[in-house]
DNA sequence: TATAAATCGGATGTTCTTATCCTATTTAAA
DNA sequence: TTTAAATAGGATAAGAACATCCGATTTATA
């Protein structure tokens, strides 16, 4: 469904948010360990998320990554996915046709419209806070 | 959502079904032209679909591809997708975790279960006949 | 029976995603 | 002010997906 980059990005953001709630700034290494991802590759994704403003990076010794605690209610899964994979997952045609729309539908258009609308609604209504809540309480997991 | 191979496979099957309803056996070239896909690459996908039994291939002069008209009601989108992309789209975890399930859910598990169930239901309930109907009547399109 | 049209399938090439490596820069703290 | 710990980011490598090439095989038809 999502690219591996995107999966890492979602997990990383969730982890950073949880630790942030405990006032812990987390390092790249700690993130990669927590979400079981390759360190250097994860760095690229974190840089991208930082440039997009979804997370904040702090350079230098004792540096690391944070998510603005005042924003965890407004940053959505949709924004993370858009930053990494683009919006094609829930906007593009199910058969990859550029000209596909209600006026010139592909054979699966009507069937996919419903799914994609729901996917979009779900991504837009799920916040970083939502992701973090279960994690914080140990109800959900990030590994394997 | 699907791989490019899968998109070609779905389009090709739909096209073959429509022509089959008119008693036309279609060649690789004709298929690639109709669905605007690379010829040799499309050949591989058609071979795969033929091996899986979703379509039938006829070798030699005047050969080509067909779909058994008695099966167009029972062959589903789900089967085409499974043959080409596997079942991970609607079975796998949204974050790519192998151990993710209701007992050990990832942070997006509950949100995705609903979407994936609907996607699965949609793919399983959409038959080749469904795909072909709109095309036959010129209501849906395969190109661009 | 020879020919031409078609699929089959192995080998190879290209492009994109994923992953690694290494150096530069930043910054807290000794 | 030096050191060490950390992110930034360019360069490169490995792997998978996408695509092409070409010879082998099959088969209808002239």
Explain how this protein is built.
Two copies of one chain form a homodimer. Chain A is mainly alpha-helical and 144 residues long. The first copy, chain A, contains seven helices and two strands; from the N terminus they run αααββαααα. The first copy, chain A, has helices at 4-21, 28-35, 39-52, 77-85, 88-91, 109-125, 128-136; strands at residues 56-58, 64-66. In chain A, β1 (56-58) and β2 form a beta hairpin. In chain A, α1 packs across α4 (77-85) and α1 crosses α7 (128-136). Chain A is elongated.
Would you spell out the secondary-structure blueprint of this structure?
The structure is a homodimer of 144-residue chains.
Chain A: H1 4-21, H2 28-35, H3 39-52, E1 56-58, E2 64-66, H4 77-85, H5 88-91, H6 109-125, H7 128-136
Antiparallel strand pairs in A: 1-2
Helix pairs in contact in A: 1-2, 1-3, 1-4, 1-7, 2-3, 4-6
The structure holds a DNA duplex (30 and 30 nucleotides).
């Amino acid at each position: 469904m999502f690219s591996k980059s995107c999966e890492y990005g979602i997990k990383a953001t969730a982890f950073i948010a949880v630790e942030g709630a405990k006032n812990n700034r987390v390092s790249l290494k700690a993130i990669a360990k927590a979400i079981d991802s390759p360190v250097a590759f994860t760095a690229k994704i974190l840089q991208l998320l930082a440039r997009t403003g979804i997370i904040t990076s702090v350079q230098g010794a004792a540096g690391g990554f944070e998510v603005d605690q005042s924003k965890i209610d407004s940053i959505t899964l949709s924004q993370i996915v858009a930053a990494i994979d683009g919006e094609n997952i829930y906007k593009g045609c199910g058969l990859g046709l550029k000209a596909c729309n209600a006026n010139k539908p592909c054979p699966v258009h009507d069937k996919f419209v419903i799914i994609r609308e729901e996917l979009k609604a779900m991504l837009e209504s799920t916040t970083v806070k939502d992701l973090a809540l279960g994690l914080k309480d140990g109800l959900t997991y990030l590994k394997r």
